[in-house]
Amino acid sequence: ANSGTNTIGRAFENGAEVNQSFITGAALPQGVAVDDAHIYWANAFGTIGRANLDGSDVQQNFIDTGAGNLNLEGVASDGAHVYWADQGGNRIGRADVDGNFILPNFIIGAKAPVGVAVDNDPPTDKHVYCVNPANATIGRADLDGSSPTQNWHEPGVTLDPRWVAVEDPDVYFTNPGEDT
Predict the structure, then answer these.
(1) pLDDT at residue 171 in the model
(2) Could you give the C-alpha distances from 168 to 90, 124, 145, 172, 176, in angstroms and in order?
(3) Residues whose CB is less than 8 angstroms from the CB of residue 11 and which lie 6 or more positions away in sequence, other chains included
(4) What CA–CA distances, in Å, run from 139 to 1, 114, 158?
(5) How far is CA 99 from CA 57, 63, 77, 92, 95, in A?
(6) What angle do CA 101, 162, 126 make, to 5 degrees?
(7) What is the pLDDT of residue 159?
(8) Three-state DSSP class for residue 177
(9) Contacts 24+ apart (CB under 8 A), 63-66
(10) Taking the CA atoms of the chain, what radius of gyration do you get in angstroms?
């Protein structure tokens, strides 16, 4: 997600054939996610964009999340749902991948969340994770939104963690304040 140029970039896994403008017309995109069929991105002004993996059928306002201006941050997909972090609303939203059943308050009580990730690989438990920079924690809830714990992990950082990714059994996060 290139917020400075309002584009979504793409490259091969080996780093070749970088295309910084693979998808154009985004609105300050803040995160990107991919599932088996689509690319999703969080537009800072409250919508989730979507396109086919080949960049066709671009829909900049695929999901209206109800988030206020400059509040929408990270996005994730598990192939059945799209999740997003609403920093200003202190919540994680969710919708079906077809754009229906929008739940802006899917998980509430987050602390200015920015990053969101989904672990839905069996045989482990399935969870949604979010990074809460306001209190330097990583939150977690069951994939159905139940059992939310906003301080599931306190990584011991003194500054604000930002982005999160999950690859069973590990949870990865960035902490730009400490360059880690």
Answers:
(1) 77
(2) 26, 8, 19, 10, 23
(3) 17, 18, 19
(4) 23, 11, 17
(5) 14, 6, 12, 16, 6
(6) 45
(7) 61
(8) helix
(9) 63/95, 63/99, 63/102, 64/102, 65/93, 65/95, 65/102, 65/104, 66/93, 66/102, 66/104
(10) 15
Beta strands (DSSP E) in the chain are 7-10, 19-24, 29-34, 38-43, 47-52, 59-64, 72-77, 81-86, 91-96, 103-108, 116-119, 127-132, 137-142, 149-153, 164-167, 170-173
Q: Which of 134, 53, 129 is nearest to 85 (CA)?
A: 129
CB-based contact 44:3 (threshold 8 Å)? yes
pLDDT along the chain (180 residues), means of 10: 94 94 94 94 94 96 88 90 93 96 94 88 77 84 88 64 76 74
Q: What is the pLDDT of residue 158?
A: 55
Question: Rounded to two decimals, what is the model's pTM?
Answer: 0.90
Q: Which pLDDT value is given to residue 2?
A: 92
Listed residue (68, 126, 65) closest to 94, CA to CA = 65
Please tell me the predicted confidence (pLDDT) of residue 157. Answer: 57
